[in-house]
């Protein structure tokens, strides 16, 4: 179902069904502009993060020994397997310590969940754990993390939550898995579903600042990988990289098994499999997101899938959603994701 929120009071889907868990989003004063939302949302200070966790590496590719680092917070052993376990996946150049991941972790823990904050390959200062780069097609890494902890603790209920690039990964995995016994829900905020459209949007003049920000981080990471694995990465032959599409064409495609950027965007996009998602799935999207774009075909596929609830708001920026309500409710997307999961679990995430 597709739900547009054209005004601050709309709480129904296109069939007229009331969504009791959906609170309308009103931007914080002075933050109606999508760029302002995005920038302020990235830098607005938050309370200190106090959730205790322990670090564990999980092998995601036995062929080359690639591992990812997870920060885990487990409920008591006697209830652990029955509690909902949320696996949180960050966005491009983020980590398990990104503010939105910490915010969701704290909320999920308070609701009685087990929490796994997953780093993508190389992220969170883990370059030495894998000889590979990370990219938007590695949905199997999320699946490997889920399968690892399901096998270890006998977990019965898994929910995948992803932001931006992480949103693409969890939607892609859900489409690839279809029906999987332990997977009970997926929730995403501003997911990069159509990779090519998003990459091109980042190269628009108004978004070049974001593109350069991502490129600086990606090129620093590539140079670190080249220093650690000089027999794999040959930096002098790359040449100048002036756009995200060039990075994906010259580096990601070259070292990650794709023909070129076009081939990568096609094969790695969750848009290809979104019609196969078979578990309750939430997609939150802002119309003023500076660089996330959805094609007409993707919108049709989302609308045709009865398992997907698509919430599109006029404002919110990219993964920001700073609302007018005070306290914890200022982070509207995080609060909405938790309310959605509570709704699915009948009001008890920890039950």
Q: Can you describe what's shown?
A:
Helix 3 links the parallel strand 4 and strand 5. The protein is α/β, with parallel strands linked by helices and 351 residues long. A 9-stranded mixed beta sheet has the order 1-9-8-7-6-4-5-3-2, sandwiched between helices. The chain is built from 11 helices and 9 strands.
Topology:
Layout: E1 2-4, H1 34-43, E2 54-61, E3 66-73, H2 77-80, E4 84-89, H3 99-110, E5 114-118, H4 139-153, E6 157-163, H5 165-177, E7 183-189, H6 195-202, H7 208-228, H8 244-256, H9 261-268, E8 281-286, H10 296-304, E9 308-313, H11 332-344
Parallel strand pairs: 1-9, 4-5, 4-6, 6-7, 7-8, 8-9
Antiparallel strand pairs: 2-3, 3-5
Helix pairs in contact: 3-11, 4-5, 8-9
Please supply descriptive tags for the structure shown above.
351 residues, alpha/beta, 9-stranded mixed beta sheet, globular
* Main β-sheet, spatial strand arrangement: 1-9-8-7-6-4-5-3-2
- Distinct helical segment count: 11
Largest sheet: 9 strands, mixed
List low-pLDDT spans.
4-16
Number of strands: 9
The overall pLDDT average reads 92
Provide a quick synopsis of the model.
The chain has 351 residues and is of the alpha/beta class. It contains eleven helices and nine strands. About 4% of the residues have low confidence.
């Amino acid at each position: 179902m597709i739900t547009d929120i054209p005004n601050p009071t709309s709480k129904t889907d296109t069939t007229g069904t009331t969504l009791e868990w959906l609170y309308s989003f009103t931007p914080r004063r002075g933050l109606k502009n999508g760029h302002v939302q995005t920038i302020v949302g990235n830098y607005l200070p938050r309370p200190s993060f106090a959730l205790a966790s322990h670090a564990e590496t999980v092998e995601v590719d036995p062929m080359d020994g690639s591992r990812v680092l997870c920060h885990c917070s487990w409920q008591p052993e006697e209830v652990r397997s029955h509690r909902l376990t949320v696996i949180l996946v960050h966005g491009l150049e983020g980590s398990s310590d990104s503010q939105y991941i910490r915010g969701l972790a704290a909320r999920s823990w308070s609701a009685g969940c087990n929490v796994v904050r997953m780093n993508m390959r190389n992220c969170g200062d883990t370059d030495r754990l894998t000889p590979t780069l990370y990219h938007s097609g590695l949905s199997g890494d999320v699946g490997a993390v889920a399968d690892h902890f399901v096998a270890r603790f006998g977990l019965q209920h898994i929910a995948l939550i992803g932001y931006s690039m992480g949103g693409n990964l969890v939607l892609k995995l859900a489409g690839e898995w279809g029906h999987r016994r332990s997977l009970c829900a997926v929730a995403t905020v501003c997911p990069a579903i159509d990779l090519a459209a998003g990459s091109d949007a980042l190269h628009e003049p108004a978004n070049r600042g974001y593109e350069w920000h991502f490129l600086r981080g990606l090129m620093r990471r590539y140079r670190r990988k080249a220093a650690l694995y000089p027999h794999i990465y040959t930096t002098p032959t790359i040449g100048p990289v002036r756009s995200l599409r060039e990075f994906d064409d010259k580096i990601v495609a070259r070292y990650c098994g794709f023909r070129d950027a076009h081939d990568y965007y096609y094969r790695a996009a969750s848009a290809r499999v979104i019609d196969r998602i078979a578990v309750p799935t939430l997609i939150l999207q802002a119309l003023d997101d500076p660089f996330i774009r959805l094609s007409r075909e993707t919108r049709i596929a989302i609308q045709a899938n009865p398992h997907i609830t698509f919430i599109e708001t006029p404002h919110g920026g990219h993964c920001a959603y700073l609302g007018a309500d005070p306290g914890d409710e200022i982070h509207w997307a995080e609060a909405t994701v938790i309310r959605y999961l509570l709704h699915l679990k009948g009001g008890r995430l920890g039950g």
